[in-house]
Amino acid sequence: MLRLQKHLSLRLQEHLLPLHRSASLIQLSLQRSLLSTGSATYSSPGHFAADDYLVSTCGLTREQAANAAKCISHWKSSSNADAVLSFLTGPALGLSNAEIALLVAKDPRVLSCSVDNTLRARLARFRSHGFSAAQISEFVRVAPCFFRKFNIDVKLGFWMPFLGSPDRFLRLVKRNFYLLSSDLDKVVKPNIQLLQECGLSIQEIGSLCVANPRLLTSKPDRIRAVLVRAGEMGVPRKTLLFRHAVTAVAGLCPETFASKLKMMANILGCSEAEVARMVQKNPLVLRRSMETIQRACAPGQRIDAKRS
């Protein structure tokens, strides 16, 4: 009887062993298949939909997203971008959705920045030059292309002592953002020196350039020509009128300057020399458009204008 039980047990083990091995192989195959599928999904180029993220999360248009996606399509996830957006919209800057969209559209690489090593550090550098949180936010709105790559210490180290305040700096940037990229040693400082040689103080140059910041960012040869033309108007240097003359001719090419004098002479019925003397007393009249000058010199006002 005992021999019979052992014989049956051995036969049963021989019968079940192939089934157990088969089940183990199936289980191992399934595990390998799942791991392979997961790996393929993670490394798939399309698993992070950059365009969709830029549109749905950052507020870009489809066209903007198509251009910006080139900078972030290699990402594996949006975790860093999420942290950047959280910081930009948080209390440190408080950017609105529209401002975020503008910033990311102009500089999508900002989403790749380290919050601590780049963004938070840049805000600290702005504050060290006297910028408030609101003024930093204004800078981002005015010059989104420069927020990430603007050389804060070099540029603001020059502009803040020269202009005196972040508000004045921002006013100039709004009118001419080339202020941020112009070479200080080859362009800006030589232009300031030329204006100083005409008897203008640093404070007067700062005030003059708020109205016409291109006096600082144009090539020095052009500014030298502007100063020559202002001097040819016969306005004494070191006077308010000379500053007005510089402002007037800075925005005009020589041809436009001459055509305005000729047009005023025709309307007023006097010589160009007489018009030149009138302009000498009020150089800023040249800043007005042709249409405005024509209305100001209408026939009914010819006598008054001529007497002036």
TrEMBL record:
Protein's UniProt keywords contain Aminoacyl-tRNA synthetase: no
Entry keyword annotation includes ATP-binding: no
Signal peptide range in chain numbering: none
InterPro entries: MTERF, MTERF_sf
Keywords tagged on the record: Transcription, Transcription regulation, Transcription termination, Transit peptide
GO MF, one example: nucleic acid binding
GO biological process annotation, one example: DNA-templated transcription termination
Domain of life: Eukaryota
Family (UniProt): Belongs to the mTERF family.
Protein name as it appears in the record: mTERF transcription factor
